[in-house]
């Protein structure tokens, strides 16, 4: 509860600071708030389930872990991107929007009621619509924000209609009541349709095929720091919410669901990796790669039993890797451009940036002993005995994934007479991130 | 009046579905951004209708309360949406969505 | 402790090198390698007096992953090979012009560390981690210090292909791992779990493992990345690939595939042995038609590992021991052969064999040493190549005499292409100015020849070391 | 005493190492003396070892080193001393030291003198290993070792690629046989569980475990023997091997190495005895080789080529004997052949030396007066090989013929034919070389001289051996009275199957007389043509008659092999490389990369940036989900 309050108040305080012309305090305030939340989760780590607000939200082990993960990602995002945000001139608006979005993200982790779910999604999304369009002078940013907004609200509406139908079929918004209702007796056709619509809505949010079309466009058009936010915190929150919903309400109740998810995952992997392999714009390529990672995240849903370790690990490893990558991406994008050619010769003048980017990409590709490997490991290990075919598709598409990551690495290490030179302003933070990627091997067991 | 008494939950649901479908088709067929935007609102209202009728059917108030939340959110969406739309119009001098395809591939 | 320090010394050296100036990188690497050699040999002796060299501490207890290093005969043998080959590579290149040499040697040391990790691993996941991680240093070595017009394409193909293979190994290992009641990646647990599977399941698990190993070894038809990679890589990278890296795969067969899935191999693994045998003959044919020395050595290497694979998979004592012995022998031979290549290439500026001739007149000692290496390559008795290859053929004969005959064709073809190459380069009358060998070059070849002969005449001690470990 | 056997191979090895590493500082004389002395030392030891076997044969094993112990596979570096091996080491070191001595003179002007002596030493080392090894694997070590030495010595003058080609051909063809030997070893190990002679034959009888595989095992071993001993169809390398210096031809390609195949078959006489089929194969391969070699030798004009085909033919005789179960007789012929063939080769070397490198007998003639020692010793050798009593060749060859007559008339007839041919071509060569007018250039004539002492002494010694060497194997008919009949047979019975003969004394004598008569007729025939009529030998271009041409072209075997194996294999590998390796496999790899991109290309139009498309995709997905669930 305290945690939610902190996050909610954070946004308001940021706006207040702007009013009192104390902009330079915004960043420390956010850091402190994030640290407080992380501290809060650790303080509450071992506690029992704590149902709050008349059963609308719950603080359980899952909520604590996912909250911690999202906060760590948000903190890391902030540390790597704050210079870029502050450069825009309207940092207070952006920070406030981000703080609100963050609040929604936390809410995604601990709802037990579909009403809260809806609110969480909207609180999470609406600020991001604005953020995507926040580069007002850029046509691409405008287009990105508009597309995200239109498609996002349509998806919300579909999700909402699904919730309504489910409510009609089961008579409750509460996850556990719904589960009980679905488990007892025959399942009304309404709940099938409702489930399909909820799945569509979530499929859109986490961007899996065939609901992924917006993602590349929006990721590419939005300012790179915001893309980083969307790819990590927003996507993570969405998948955490989906996991809670599906494990809470539908686990074991819907016989075909698992098969459907397998098909979605497979299609997503093929399409995303195929599309990513032909991109020449690195940011767009990363967007498609994000789609393929979403498929992996979705795959955690079909691992038997409720063991959130796999999804938590996947989100944080993918999150940190992408934040590192997007951070370098941003630097290169500002000086040279976002095309593959613009990365040429990065290693000559900026060996650190090139190395950091390489490690981030390798982690995303799942090369051991980096964190990304363990993310994939848990997914594949969970599925190998129940869905061996799917794991083979995962493996094959991973190779394609490696291909397009390698293209970037090649470009960076290519010799050229006019190498790109970028500003390296957050080496320390990035180094911490890299260390985290390596240390994940040991840290896995506490997740 | 006779007719009104014969209206069942299915009728409400049917209407709600039709409205929702109208919203969807509107989004698919119209090219003007504002109309599309209105279609989203139409979809949300279709949901509201469904929720209220389900609420009545189940005899609890949960659904009706939810409707209030939806209305609030919809208002927020309108604000954000219109702002984005304005900015888009200012930069491009058109609200035709067909021309919005600089990002693709 | 011994195992750990041998694993850590090169790793730390590589970090040290990355953060140092280019000045005396080679000296640092050499010192570190000599230290490793001392620790390894001292460690082996100490083990004989009861010191335990092994080490194990849990890393991720929930999945039974521990950092566990073994220190048994086969592991020692492979580590020894790694160190000796590493010494050869660094010693050979110390007087060569190499740009940003600190990073160059840094990557080499990191590569050695990863490979030593794979050889010492007593934990399946650790083995896999090291197996994969070894790709990264070699990738950069090829990309940054390689040459040739298709460098990026070739590097890309190499990296993706080998990655493709090893991912199947992960699937197989995970399948075995998942079948346990209390999952653990510990070697004995994995072996037991593998044995508990049905023959059909073992067949599939083996298939996954073999694809991974077949790509890395490489075995027909998974070898197509190899010749071009050898060609484009810097010579040190080629040596690393041929001498040590591919041994991770053959060693993987001995350490993991055979103990886990022996029944599966016997019942559903015929295709793998057949592929290995085909590989031997096919690669010999390929070598026969090569005009360039480096390519010929590359294909001859494929033929050798095909033999190793076939012998090991036929799963007899002779196969396992012969396989390990041949790995060691081939490792040394590979380094030496590529040194020969480098010496010739440096002096001629190309390696088209038909355009050379008469080197023997100009450099008789060089010709003599090379001839012995060539003879080891064609498995002449009293060279180390013979002991390994003969044991492997014996083992294969237990499986099928027909396969032995087919694989044995390499005895004829190997002699044909090796002697053809030797004749074209060294014999004949026309002489080309041939700069005398430097002291380093001569030393390294002499030591290799000495090892090859000593191991051929007295392989007894080494063979005792690797017997009855399973 | 038997323990000394370990030293026998050691001395030549020391010689090799010494000359290779320290020889540069030594004069040619010293180096040659060291090499010769060490082999001679081995010869002395060999005599000592041999004498231990004279008084009651018994096999003794001397282990030197643990070698390969893996599971049930236990093989040591260990030597066996028994009649067979002690006989072999005796003539290897004996003939070997003579040829070393000869080489000092013959190679004196060659810049590679040190190299030559060290190779010869190494060869003797490996040859001794071959016959002394107490297991098949050690035999194989020697087997391959002598192959390599043969390679190095054939291509000794490496600046000429013709020599190198001949060396390579010898090595590769030997390897074909070696593959057979490897497979044979594998089969024997798999079935019998050991490769040690002691387990297989001497102490145990594990060879019997081969059972139904016996024939296959014997045939595989014989394939090995075929390669090394130049039996049809693997014989074509031996004539080419004459590219090496003449002492090499004498030592390796006449006296010792090429008889390793006979040693192998004799050693495994237990195996060949139980396999009728394999023995048949051995017989016929031998007969065909004997006839073919003799027929080709009729038309050759290179003095060394004639001797080479003669060797091929004589080896055929030995295998024919082996196939018919006359193992001891075959070994007997090996020994006598070693004497007279080494003598002939050394004699021809002496001639070539005098002629300044000329080898074509059409360019010689009348050398008798210029080099008397060579002439007389050569004559002894020629008579010996023609099979005239009481020279060595008579005894051994006659017993082979006698045995053939008992067993198979066709074989007998063919061998008789070959023997007749032998007498003819040997005397043809002899007359053309030493009699008549000198047909070379003036310059050559001016330089004609008798060879130095180091060369003539071995000739004389070998000539004596060729004269009396046959006495160790008196046939029944002659030796009966003196109680020395078949002395060698009895001696060897400790190692190998004894030859059984049921021939009456009268038949034996009759046969001997007939064969001598035929040989005599052939000699007269040759005399008639080449001395009396002095018919000029046709130049290469003048050879027109098809039969003559066929023989002169060696039945076209070289061309046949070229077209049958070498060219197709080269074409096959080039084709595989181009189509399978480059097009198919690489294409597949790169193609799979393109496939992933292809998916992207196909789907790219869908991602067209239009909101409508995206929405439509969502709706379609939704509808699909509704129907799927």
Detailed description of the structure:
The complex is a heterotetramer of chains A (447), B (105), C (470) and D (629). Chain A has helices at 2-19, 26-43, 61-87, 91-110, 114-132, 139-170, 175-183, 189-206, 214-221, 224-250, 257-277, 282-299, 309-335, 346-349, 351-365, 371-383, 388-413, 427-443; strands at residues 50-52, 57-59. The radius of gyration of chain A is 21 Å and the shape is globular. Chain A has a domain at 256-447. With 447 residues, chain A is mainly alpha-helical. In chain A, helix 3 packs antiparallel against helix 10 (224-250) and helix 3 (61-87) packs parallel to helix 13. By secondary structure, chain B is an all-alpha fold. Chain B has one domain (2-97): Helix Hairpins. Chain C has 470 residues and is mainly α. Chain C has a domain at 278-470. Helix content of chain C is 76%, strand content 2%. In chain C, strand 1 and strand 2 (65-69) form a beta hairpin. Chain D is mainly alpha-helical and 629 residues long. Chain D is built from 26 helices and two strands. Chain D has a two-stranded antiparallel sheet with strand order 1-2. In chain D, a hairpin with a 2-residue loop joins strand 1 (60-70) and strand 2. The longest helix of chain D has 47 residues, at 557-603. Chain D is globular and about 115 Å long.
Features:
heterotetramer, A: 447 residues, mainly alpha, 18 helices, 75% helix, 1% strand, globular, D: 629 residues, 2 domains, two-stranded antiparallel sheet, 26 helices
Label the overall shape of chain D. Answer: globular
Structural class of chain C: mainly alpha
- Tell me which oligomeric state these chains represent: heterotetramer
Distance between the termini of chain C: 23 Å
Flag low-confidence runs of chain C.
Answer: none
Taking the sheet with the most strands of chain D, its summary is: 2 strands, antiparallel
Within the largest sheet of chain C, what's the order of strands? 1-2
Strand coverage percent of chain D? under 5%
- Estimate what percentage of residues of chain C fall within beta strands: under 5%
Q: What's the Cα radius of gyration of chain D?
A: 30 Å
Helix percent band of chain D: over 70%
Ends distance of chain D: 94 Å
**Cα radius of gyration of chain C in angstroms:** 21 Å
Number of helices, where a helix is a run of at least 4 consecutive DSSP H or I residues of chain D: 26
Average pLDDT taken over every residue of chain C: 90
For the biggest β-sheet of chain D, the strand order reads 1-2
Output mean pLDDT of chain D.
Answer: 85
* Backbone shape of chain C: globular
Topology, number of strands of chain C: 2
């Amino acid at each position: 509860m305290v945690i939610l309050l902190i996050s909610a108040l954070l946004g308001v305080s940021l706006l207040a600071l702007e009013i009192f012309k104390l902009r330079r305090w915004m960043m420390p305030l956010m850091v402190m708030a994030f640290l407080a939340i992380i501290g809060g989760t650790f303080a509450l780590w071992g506690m029992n389930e704590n149902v709050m607000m008349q059963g609308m939200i719950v603080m359980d082990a899952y909520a604590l872990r996912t909250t911690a993960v999202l906060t760590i990602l948000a903190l890391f995002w902030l540390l790597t991107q704050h210079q870029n945000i502050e450069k825009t001139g309207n940092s207070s608006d952006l920070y406030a929007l981000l703080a609100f979005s963050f609040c929604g993200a936390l809410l995604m982790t601990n709802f037990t009621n579909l009403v809260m779910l809806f609110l969480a999604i909207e609180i999470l999304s609406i600020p991001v619509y604005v953020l995507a369009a926040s580069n007002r002078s850029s046509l691409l940013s405008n287009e990105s924000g508009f597309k995200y907004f239109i498609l996002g609200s349509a998806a919300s509406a579909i999700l909402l209609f699904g919730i309504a139908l489910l409510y009609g079929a089961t008579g409750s918004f509460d996850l556990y009541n719904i589960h009980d209702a679905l488990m007892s007796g025959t399942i009304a056709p309404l709940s099938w349709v409702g489930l399909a619509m909820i799945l569509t809505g979530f499929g859109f949010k986490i961007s899996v095929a065939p609901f992924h079309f917006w993602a590349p466009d929006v990721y590419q058009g939005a300012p790179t720091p915001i893309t980083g936010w969307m790819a990590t915190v927003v996507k993570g929150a969405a998948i955490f919410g989906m996991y809670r919903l599906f494990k809470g309400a539908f686990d074991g109740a819907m016989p075909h669901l698992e098969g459907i998810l397998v098909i979605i995952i497979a299609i997503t992997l093929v399409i995303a990796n195929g599309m990513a392999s032909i991109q020449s714009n690195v940011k767009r390529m990363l967007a498609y790669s994000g789609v393929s990672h979403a498929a992996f995240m979705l795959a955690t849903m079909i691992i038997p039993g409720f063991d959130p370790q796999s999804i938590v690990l996947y989100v944080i490893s993918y999150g940190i890797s992408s934040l590192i990558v997007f951070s370098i991406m941003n630097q290169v994008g500002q000086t040279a451009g976002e095309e593959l050619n613009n990365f040429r010769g990065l290693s000559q003048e900026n060996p650190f940036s090139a190395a950091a980017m390489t490690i981030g990409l390798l982690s995303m590709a799942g090369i051991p002993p980096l964190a990304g490997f363990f993310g994939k490991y848990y997914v594949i290990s969970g599925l190998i005995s129940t869905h061996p075919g799917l794991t083979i598709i995962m493996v094959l598409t991973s190779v394609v994934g490696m291909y397009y990551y390698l293209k970037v690495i090649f470009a960076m290490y290519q010799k050229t007479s006019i190498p790109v030179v970028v500003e390296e302003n957050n080496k320390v933070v990035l180094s911490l991130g890299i260390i985290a990627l390596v240390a994940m091997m040991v840290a896995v067991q506490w997740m | 009046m006779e007719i009104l008494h014969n209206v069942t939950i299915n009728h409400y649901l049917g209407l709600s579905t039709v409205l929702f479908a109208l919203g969807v088709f509107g989004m698919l067929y119209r090219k003007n951004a504002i109309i599309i935007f209105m279609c989203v609102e139409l979809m949300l209202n279709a949901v509201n209708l469904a929720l209220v009728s389900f609420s009545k059917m189940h005899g609890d108030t949960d659904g009706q309360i939810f409707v209030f939340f939806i209305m609030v959110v919809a208002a927020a969406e309108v604000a954000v949406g219109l702002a984005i739309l304005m900015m888009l119009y200012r930069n491009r001098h058109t609200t035709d969505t067909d021309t919005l395809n600089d990002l693709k591939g | 402790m011994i195992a750990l320090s041998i694993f850590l010394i090169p790793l730390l050296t590589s970090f040290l090198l990355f953060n140092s100036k280019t000045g005396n990188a080679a000296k640092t690497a050499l010192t570190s390698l000599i230290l490793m050699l001392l620790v390894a040999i001292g460690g082996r002796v100490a083990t004989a007096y009861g010191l335990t060299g092994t080490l194990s501490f849990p890393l991720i207890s929930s999945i039974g992953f521990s950092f566990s290093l073994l220190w048994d005969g086969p592991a020692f043998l492979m580590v020894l090979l790694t160190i000796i080959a590493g010494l050869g590579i660094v010693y050979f290149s110390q007087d060569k012009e190499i740009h940003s040499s600190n990073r160059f040697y840094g990557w080499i040391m990191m590569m050695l560390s990863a490979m030593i990790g794979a050889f010492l691993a007593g934990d399946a996941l650790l083995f896999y981690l090291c197996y994969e991680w070894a790709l990264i240093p070699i990738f950069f070595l090829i990309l940054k210090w390689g040459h040739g017009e298709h460098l990026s394409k070739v590097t890309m193909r190499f990296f993706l292909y080998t990655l493709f293979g090893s991912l199947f190994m992960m699937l197989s290992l995970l399948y075995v791992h998942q079948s346990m009641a209390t999952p653990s990646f510990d070697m004995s647990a994995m072996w037991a779990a593998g044995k508990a599977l049905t023959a059909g399941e073992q067949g599939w698990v083996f298939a996954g493992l073999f694809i991974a190993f077949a790509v890395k070894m490489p075995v027909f038809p998974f070898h197509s990345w190899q010749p071009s990679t050898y060609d484009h890589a810097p010579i040190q990278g080629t040596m690393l690939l041929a001498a040590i890296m591919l041994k991770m795969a053959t060693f993987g067969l001995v350490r993991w595939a055979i103990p886990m899935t022996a029944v599966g191999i016997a019942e559903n693994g015929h295709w793998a042995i057949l592929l290995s045998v085909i590989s031997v003959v096919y690669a010999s044919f390929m070598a026969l038609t090569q005009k360039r020395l480096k390519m010929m050595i590359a294909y001859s290497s494929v033929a050798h590992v095909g033999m190793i694979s076939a012998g090991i998979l036929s799963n007899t004592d002779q196969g396992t021991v012969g396989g390990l012995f041949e790995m060691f022998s081939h490792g040394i031979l590979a380094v030496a052969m590529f040194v020969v290549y480098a010496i010739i290439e440096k002096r001629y500026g190309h390696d088209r064999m038909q355009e050379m001739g008469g080197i023997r007149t100009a450099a008789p000692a060089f010709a003599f040493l090379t001839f012995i290496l060539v003879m080891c390559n064609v498995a002449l008795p009293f060279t180390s190549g013979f002991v390994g290859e003969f044991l492997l053929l014996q083992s294969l004969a237990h499986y099928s005499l027909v396969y032995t005959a087919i694989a044995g064709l390499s005895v004829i073809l190997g002699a044909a292409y090796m002697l053809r190459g030797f004749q074209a380069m060294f014999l004949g009358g026309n002489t080309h100015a041939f700069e005398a060998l430097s002291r380093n070059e001569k030393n390294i070849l002499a030591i290799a020849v000495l090892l090859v002969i000593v191991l051929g005449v007295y392989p007894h001690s080494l063979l005792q070391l690797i017997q009855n470990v399973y | 005493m038997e323990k000394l056997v370990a030293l026998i191979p050691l001395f030549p090895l020391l010689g090799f190492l010494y000359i290779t590493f320290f020889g540069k500082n030594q004069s040619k004389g010293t180096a040659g003396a060291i090499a010769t002395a060490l082999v001679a030392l081995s010869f002395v030891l060999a005599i000592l070892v041999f004498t231990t076997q004279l008084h009651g044969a018994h096999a003794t094993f001397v282990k030197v080193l643990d070698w390969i112990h893996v599971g049930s596979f236990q093989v040591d570096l260990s030597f066996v001393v028994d009649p067979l091996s002690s006989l072999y080491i005796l003539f290897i070191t004996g003939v070997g030291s003579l040829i070393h001595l000869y080489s000092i003179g013959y190679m004196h002007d060659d810049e590679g003198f040190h190299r030559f002596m060290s190779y010869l030493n190494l060869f003797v080392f490996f040859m001794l290993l071959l016959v002394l090894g107490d297991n098949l694997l050690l035999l194989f070590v020697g087997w391959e070792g002598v192959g390599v030495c043969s390679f190095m010595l054939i291509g000794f003058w490496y600046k000429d690629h013709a020599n190198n080609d001949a060396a390579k051909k010898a090595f590769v063809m030997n390897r074909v046989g070696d593959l057979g030997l490897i497979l044979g070893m594998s089969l024997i190990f798999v079935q019998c569980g050991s490769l040690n002679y002691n387990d297989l034959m001497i102490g145990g009888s594990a060879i019997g475990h081969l059972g139904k595989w016996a024939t296959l095992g014997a045939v595989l071993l014989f394939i090995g023997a075929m390669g090394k001993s130049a039996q049809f169809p693997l014989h074509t390398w031996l004539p080419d091997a004459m590219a090496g210096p003449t002492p090499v031809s004498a030592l390796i390609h006449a006296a010792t190495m090429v008889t390793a195949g006979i040693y192998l078959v004799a050693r495994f006489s237990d195996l060949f005895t139980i396999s009728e089929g394999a023995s048949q194969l051995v017989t016929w391969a031998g007969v065909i080789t004997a006839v073919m070699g003799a027929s080709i030798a009729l038309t050759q004009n290179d003095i060394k080529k004639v001797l080479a085909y003669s060797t091929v033919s004589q080896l055929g005789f030995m295998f024919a004997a082996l196939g018919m179960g006359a193992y001891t007789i075959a070994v007997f012929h090996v020994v006598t052949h070693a004497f007279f063939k080494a003598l002939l080769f050394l004699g021809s070397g002496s001639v070539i030396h005098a002629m300044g490198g000329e080898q074509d007998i059409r360019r010689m003639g009348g050398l008798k007066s210029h080099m008397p020692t060579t002439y007389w010793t050569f004559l002894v050798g020629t008579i010996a090989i023609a099979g005239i009593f009481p020279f060595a060749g008579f005894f051994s060859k006659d017993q082979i013929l006698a045995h053939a007559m008992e067993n198979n008339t066709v074989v007998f007839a063919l061998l008789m034919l070959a023997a007749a041919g032998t007498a003819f071509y040997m005397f043809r060569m002899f007359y053309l070389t030493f009699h008549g007018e000198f047909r070379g250039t003036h310059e050559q004539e001016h330089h004609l001289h008798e060879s130095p002492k180091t060369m003539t002494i071995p000739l004389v010694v070998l000539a004596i051996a060729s004269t009396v060497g046959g006495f160790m194997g008196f046939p029944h008919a002659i030796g009966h009275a003196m109680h020395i009949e078949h002395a060698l047979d009895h001696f060897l019975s400790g190692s190998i199957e004894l030859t059984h003969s049921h021939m009456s004394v009268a038949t034996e004598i009759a046969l001997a007389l007939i064969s001598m008569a035929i040989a005599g007729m052939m000699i007269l025939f040759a005399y008639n043509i080449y001395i009396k009529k002095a018919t000029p030998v046709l130049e290469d271009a003048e050879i027109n008659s098809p039969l003559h041409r066929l023989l002169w072209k060696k039945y076209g075997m070289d061309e046949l092999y070229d077209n049958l194996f070498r060219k197709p294999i080269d074409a096959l590998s080039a084709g595989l490389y181009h189509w399978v390796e480059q097009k198919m496999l690489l294409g597949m790899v790169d193609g799979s990369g393109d496939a992933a991109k292809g998916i992207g290309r196909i789907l790219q139009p869908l991602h067209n940036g239009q909101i409508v498309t995206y929405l439509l995709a969502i709706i379609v997905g939704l509808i699909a989900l509704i129907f799927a669930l």
